[in-house]
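Cast an eye over my tokenised protein here and flag anything odd:

===
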Amino acid sequence: GLASQGGLIQPRIAGSWLLSPPIHFFLSLERHSVKMFLRGRPITMYIPSAFLNYDDLRMEQPSEKLQLDWVYGYRGRDCRSNLYVLASGELVYFIACVVVLYHVQNRTQRHYLKHTDCVRCLAVHPDRVRVASGQMAGVDKDGKPLQPFVHIWDSSTLLPLQEIGLGSFERGVGSLAFSTADEGMYLCVVDESNEHMLSIWDCSRATKLAEIKSTNESVLTVEFNPEDSSNIITTGKSHVYFWTWSGSSLTKKQGIFGKYKKPKFIQCFVFDTNSDVLTGDSEGNILTWARVAADVRTLGKGAKETYQISKQTRAHEGSIFSLCLCHDGTVLSGGGKDRRLVHWSPNLTLLQEMEIPEQFGAVRTIAEADGGELLVGTTRNALLRGSFVDGFRPIIQGHTDELWGLGTHPSRDLFVTCGYDKQLCMWDGGEHTLAWSVTLEVPYEKWEEHAAWPWGCRTTCVASF
């Protein structure tokens, strides 16, 4: 859940109805402990020694219910292409089973809560209102298997429009993309099975139109050609594939690297203003794949155009995790090892660059808001907002590993958390911000943390075992 990904939730009291966070549990008393069943897995919670007669303290369930109010954190450590700007001006991203819609100026959040297990990918429709989100397989509250699926939903009402692929996907949904040339009629999905099945769906009817085994290697990204929905590109481990879709048929051509070193991973790509393809790879290079007319004499009259590498641009030290085409045709790239955010002209001449502070980690994904403001998701689960001129500041932060300790202030709207990332964090519940954090150096590889706020004290206590 949220805690396993370094996130946490803040509920508020609602009326007689419940918008429940997607975590289900039951409690049972067993001697000096309470047993919680989380997704069918028993977890023992020990009753504090101060409560000598726990049975006498038990009472009827209150009439009030909890409603999700705020989500702290963002899943950037192990996900990509998961930050977009909607027509409403809200940012949309996910952590655990929750898709968050965050209005930065108004400092409000809304939440899409229809998923039953961790969300792993997002795609935004060309209308910037509809959203597709795909989840992993999981188990229900009784430990029974839950199949992965994709939801297409309306971000203005938070109502689901279509459920796609229930029973069709294996393990989970890894990548999603809406078509653009036909105003978002189709959705391409790549699942997490061994063969990474690639399928195309009619969005309005939720029907599968074509399906094929793509590759046994990891697939990291998929996109339709914005000018031609019959052309699709996937990239990942040791490959870039150019797909042609016709009816129920899908055929692919592998990108040929020729004289250029073949990278271990092609982690991201965008179509530029010339409809060429720019790929970012684990070697730190941006490769420009230009369209080349097909050899009709050799392949016949029906032959399709192909893509060939026309240019290599040295961009980063280490992997390129993200590429973003800006509204003015310029390109942004984000580095992993060097943590650099680089601004390129349309022909890939360096314009500006800056380094993201080490405390936030590497650049995971980049989005451009209206007015040219930039948003950056990082590998240390932070969302940054800013520009090359004014710099960047965090608007969302979270833990980067499992969260195991939480303590609340006895009288103020403050709480502390700690986890396997060795971070002790103080949060302001009223402002929904991180007040401060410190790193705790503990010499154990495996450890549990507990944070407490002694009643009436101004300090926190942390114990590790």
